[in-house]
Amino acid sequence: MASAVRLPLEAFFARESLHPNKVYMTQPLGNGQIEQLTWSDVGEQARRAASWLRSLELEPGSRIAIVSKNCAHWIVTDLAIWMAGHVSVPLYPNLTGDSVRQVLQHAEARVAFIGKLDDWPAMAPGVPEGVVSVCLPLHPHGRFDRTWQDLQACAPIQDTPRPAAEQLATIIYTSGTTGMPKGVMHSFGNFGFTASHATELFGVDQSDRVLSYLPLCHVAERMFVELNSLYSGLSVYFAESLDTFLADLRRARPTVLFGVPRIWTKFQMGVYSKMPAKRLDLLLSIPLIGRLVGRKVLHGLGLDAVRYGLSGAAPVPETLLSWYRRLGLELQEVYGMTENCGYSHVCRPGKFKQGWIGQNNPGVEVRISEEGEVLVRSGATMQGYFKEPGKTAEAMTEDGFLRTGDKGEQDAEGNLRLTGRIKEIFKTSKGKYVAPAPIENRLAVHSHIEQVCVVGDGLPQPLALCVLSETGRKQPREQLEGSLKRLLDEINQELDKHERLHSLVLVPEVWAVDNGFLTPTLKIKRAIVEGAYSPHFQAWGSRSGEVFWQE
Prior knowledge:
Blueprint: H1 8-18, E1 23-30, E2 33-38, H2 39-55, E3 63-67, H3 72-83, E4 87-91, H4 97-107, E5 111-114, H5 120-123, E6 132-135, E7 146-147, H6 148-152, E8 168-173, E9 183-187, H7 188-202, E10 209-212, H8 219-232, E11 235-238, H9 245-252, E12 256-259, H10 261-272, H11 277-284, H12 289-301, E13 308-311, H13 318-327, E14 331-335, E15 345-346, E16 359-360, E17 365-368, E18 373-377, E19 384-385, H14 389-395, E20 402-410, E21 416-421, E22 426-427, E23 433-434, H15 436-444, E24 449-455, E25 463-468, H16 470-473, H17 477-494, E26 503-506, H18 526-533, H19 537-542, E27 547-549
Parallel strand pairs: 1-11, 3-4, 3-5, 5-6, 6-7, 10-11, 12-13, 13-14, 25-26, 26-27
Antiparallel strand pairs: 1-2, 8-9, 9-19, 14-15, 15-16, 17-18, 18-20, 20-21, 22-23, 24-25
Helix pairs in contact: 2-3, 7-8, 11-12
């Protein structure tokens, strides 16, 4: 199946030949300056870097690391690694030094390309001795074995490498909600299958624009930005920083945009900070005026040109989808995993069904196991976990279906609905099982709550640990508690008796990547959250009161 589609390097060479002088990537350099790279520029620089990599005479298929925030040369480097006959190993740009060492040693990396980073001094000690370091054009202060300029002094390779479909292209280390990250192996065939099907599914072409701001080391951004650009020819714009994000967004005026739910919520909160929610809702409800207001709001965000707005990595609150729809932007929910290139399900335009993700993508087979687990199989399915045959066997069925770990169900039209995680389900002291995710999704739609984790293993009733949003923190205490009590009552009325929440506990810490509560893709590390607050669970479970603050 994979061999029938065009592979990534072939797609790049075709684009380079078709329109060499078309601007491919736009990179902010700071102080309002930008650099633009054409397809020809990218090809030339990648071939020179590939020439240098070949000069090292490493064993074919050696692992080469990319440690950088998103930038144009992240993609140029990836192409160079492939042209040189090696395997790229991207790392999250906010890992600790220990985690850097853990991944680089496990991957047996020989070279590490270092680019844009916020805290290189903390990461640098994690680079093992003997790994050659190369700094990209945008890089932190520090000592490196080679510079990008050194590589560009090499004569470009003259051949046109065409790796086989089954050849390993990359190892993507999962963000690791628990324990050591696993190295997901993807071949050129996996990437080719995913990208060719996805660009056709969404009708993306060379006139489209995308803003790259989520980590390129994550499978979703890798597919949506890098691979999508190779296959469709779209233009890639990069975000410089959080401070310049809105300016970067307005410069790009993307026609397709991928975000995680928290990003889409941040946009909404930004709008509410300038106009009260009730006033905006009233204006949007007025015929004709509502459409004009919606367009103006989208224009102010830089989202007015978006044809496809996609959200993934976590469930999207239905009220958030509805809010964007009222503005005139139909957000599509996508579902997938690192292990299948993020290519599994998406809601098709005009086919939204409340509470359901959507249908399986072209070329994806789905079935629900006897235990209720969603199983998927396609040409996007990984080759396995690097150096982990046992874990690979656990992740796959005998006939090649990937075990997602998600519980779910399908309707007659093939729409998928997730009902929880197989491993996240806990048992209360009453012997009843509770799936926390659906309850968390109901709570997360409230404008006063930014993060939530439902716990209850061994407790009589579950508790919801909540981090307040910026809006919530600004509310008078009495008013806030009243609002949250009403929310709790509404949700408990919808739940079975054994699922009903004993109380909402408002915790003072904001859960972030930096303090270890979130993965780099902003997923809550449930075990870390539970471990941090578990000493209080029994006391909280015996307290009276529906909403109270951690003391």
